[in-house]
Design brief:
By secondary structure, this protein is α+β, with helices and mostly antiparallel strands. The chain has two helices and eleven strands; from the N terminus they run H-E-E-E-E-E-H-E-E-E-E-E-E. The structure holds copper (II) ion. The site of copper (II) ion has 5 residues, from loops.
Length: 131
């Protein structure tokens, strides 16, 4: 009897885990980050740990940029349908385009940069602070 209760308890825990990891994306606030030559605005992006958010990456310039933060994306839980937008920890944002990536960030301070040639050298870098 005790054993079957224990097994039932374990089953309940494993069933509960995936649904707990599915946030309500429609309630997630939108955080806009502007990409331009050669900066991120804001350069320090502050997010709440464990709170779903939609990163709205907006490139108002004509040249392409990327939002590269491999450690940040690795630690975060990216919405399944947005995973294809994050390649190698970077999100490409073509000129005059915007890209939304919904995720649940994990606590930490992460470096952010644009990997296009010389862009970070010209100042296109920042940080993501998740508390
Ligand atoms: Cu750039």
């Amino acid at each position: 009897m005790k054993r079957s209760l224990l097994l039932a308890g374990l089953a309940a825990v494993s069933l509960a885990a995936p649904s707990a990891a599915q946030p309500n994306w429609s309630q997630a606030p939108r955080v806009t980050v502007a990409l331009s030559s050669f900066k991120f605005a804001p350069a320090t992006i502050r997010l709440r740990a464990g709170q779903p958010v939609i990163l709205h990456l907006q490139n108002s310039g004509s040249g392409g940029h990327d939002f590269s933060a491999p450690a940040f994306f690795k630690a975060a839980t990216v919405r399944p349908q947005d995973k294809g937008r994050v390649e190698g920890g970077s999100v490409d944002v073509a000129g005059r385009e915007s890209v939304d990536v919904a995720l649940v960030p994990a606590a930490g301070t992460y470096p952010l940069r644009c990997t296009h040639a010389f862009h970070s050298m010209f100042g296109m870098k920042g940080s993501i602070v998740v508390q």
